[in-house]
Amino acid sequence: MTDLARLPPRDERGALRVVVESPRGASLKLKYDAELGVVTVSRPLPLGLAYPYDWGFVPGTRAPDGDPVDALVYWDAVSFPGVVVPCRAVGVVRLEQDSKSNGRVRNDRILAVPVKHPRGDDLRSPDDLPARVRDEIAQFFLSAIFFEPKNPALLGWGGPEEAERLVDGCTRALAAVARRRS
User: Fold this and answer.
1) Model pLDDT for residues 122-170, shown as the tens digit of each residue
2) Which of 14, 106, 115, 181 has the fewest CB within 10 Å, making it most exposed?
3) Strand bridging mode 84-98 / 16-22
């Protein structure tokens, strides 16, 4: 079986790959465990919260928090854990939180739209979303970790170019870690 975390971040057409961990409507945070090759339970979300859209990660990346880059797939469908969705980046929610060791670390999240989602064709940047939807997505990210010792802070939104730079930088970061290990 293929290790989903080791997939290249982009497919042969250049689409961003997002591996779904927690599907839309899930009230559990699920996490892909590369060592076991399965999706495991991380923790329940606070009462009343559920993922508004499919949630997962961009494989082949390493974000500043040490995990792959997080991604939210903005569409009106529900998939399953382990599904790989070819997407295009629409924007990035900039977040900062306490690190596991010391200090603060960025934990930005990509907002992506599937390439095969005609109802999302007009969505090119976060500015194309109603302000209320942007605010609700940002508030979801803060509320989902309310009881975790992370002290999150919302730093704003970035556009598709910033999201692409984040993915490219985190792809290089993972490659650098792999070179040091070999």
Assistant:
1) 999 999 999 999 999 999 999 999 999 999 999 999 999 999 999 999 9
2) 181
3) antiparallel
